[in-house]
Amino acid sequence: MRVGGSQQSLLMNIQRAALLLLICGLLARQASPAYAQSSEGVGAGVASNSAADGTRGPNNGSPALTGARRPLYRLRKSDVVEIKFTFSPEFDQIATVLPDGFVALKVVGDLFAEGLTVSELKDLVRATYTPTLRDPEVSVILKDFERPFFVAGGQVGRPGKYELRSPTSVAEAIAIAGGFTEQSRHSQVVLFRKVADGIVEAHVLNVKAMLASRNLEEDLELHPGDMLFVPQNRMSKIRKFLPVSSLSTFFTPAQF
Questions:
Q1: In the chain, pLDDT over 70 holds for what percent of residues?
Q2: DSSP type of residue 221
Q3: Fold observed for domain 149-239
């Protein structure tokens, strides 16, 4: 009986040990995904912070968002800059970016300035004058530049070129340009946007439907240099060939 009792006790201990190992294994499996998720969460937080701060994360190859959202102004043709030398005022001058992209400077000649930021031009002027002046202290001020603009054409009240002083949508731009005329085709307003040299995108917008539904989610925001074109409706094209009385009986311009 003693032998049988000891065997039974040994069997119970083995079962307890196996159950304990099974429980430990299950706990370890549950802990591993939680640790992985917490690690991923920390990594995502670092990446998000680095993007918001405008820096690159150590394992993130994407460019910084800050530079893309608020790029510095780059000089264009006809821009006017004032160049001042703190200790050599005789070299001070006001220069204009010529059609070929150069600015003509005293003594040193021409420098290519188109596409440079004001800070980059200042560094270039300082480096160019270093052989002539000892440690020149230079400041560059942008005096005049081409203001952001958009162009509205076609069947609007006042076609022309308008300054883009603040965020402006397509519907707002049409209102600025005098609104639609009776001959305008509200449902096919065309937005032309230059995306690169020689490449222009065209977006057709149904402004009539947007305004009728009071939903401006698809009302695009204009970029500098955009052009809006409001075409002529079909009814106004044939109006001059038909008597006015017969047209007014069956049609109204708003239908088109």
A1: 67
A2: B
A3: Outer membrane lipoprotein wza fold like (3.10.560)
